[in-house]
Amino acid sequence: MKITLLTVGKTEDAYLKDGIEKYVKRLKHYTKLELIDMPELKNTKALTQEQQKSKEAELIMKKVQPLDFLVLLDEKGAELTSTQFAAYIDKRQIGSTSHIIFVVGGPYGFDASVYQRANDKLSLSRMTFSHQMVRLFFVEQLYRAYTILKGEPYHHS
């Protein structure tokens, strides 16, 4: 199964880039992972929040194919423990999912059209994190999920 993390904007802080790279490298042993950073919208001062979400939705939907399993990383999503997330990934692998796309939206969340297309919503926390940090948290949790599935000693219950 191929996994894509689709985000709006780039990671600029070196310490976050280093951390992301560390886990992306580790994940190569378990799955095919692609990170796609879509460019942030420009000249947004003249746009309402809804217009920004609509424009971001257009960018997101260009990356999604009809058979892709689309998961929004959203504050309204289900909260899972690391073990539950591992089971979630395992279920997708065992099922017929060939490509799962996890999406981090822009600063105002997702447009209604993206919610309609989504297959699922997950929340990394009830807290709010910067979009840059979410990338690191997600790839670490993905790595943790695979080590749980393989029975490796990274995760301690």
Corresponding CATH architecture:
3-Layer(aba) Sandwich
Number of domains: 1
- What is the number of strand segments? 5
Order of helices and strands: EHEHEHEHEH
What value does the average pLDDT take? 94
User: Looking across the biggest beta sheet, what order are the strands in?
Assistant: 2-1-4-3-5
- Top-tier CATH class: Alpha Beta
Helix content: 40-55%
Structural class: alpha/beta
Q: Mind explaining what this structure looks like?
A:
This protein has 157 residues and is of the alpha/beta class. It has one domain (2-40, 48-149): Alpha/beta knot. Helix content is 42%, strand content 22%. It contains five helices and five strands; from the N terminus they run βαβαβαβαβα. The protein has a five-stranded parallel beta sheet with strand order 2-1-4-3-5. β3, α3 (82-94) and β4 form a beta-alpha-beta unit. α1 (14-27) runs parallel beside α5 (131-149) and α3 (82-94) crosses α5 (131-149). The protein is globular, with a radius of gyration of 15 Å. The model has no long low-confidence stretch (mean pLDDT 94).
Topology:
Blueprint (H helix, E strand, L loop, with lengths): L1 E7 L5 H14 L4 E7 L10 H14 L6 E11 L2 H13 L4 E6 L7 H6 L2 E4 L7 H19 L8
Parallel strand pairs: 1-2, 1-4, 3-4, 3-5
Helix pairs in contact: 1-5, 3-5
EC number: 2.1.1.177
GO molecular function: rRNA (pseudouridine-N3-)-methyltransferase activity
Keywords: Cytoplasm, Methyltransferase, rRNA processing, S-adenosyl-L-methionine, Transferase
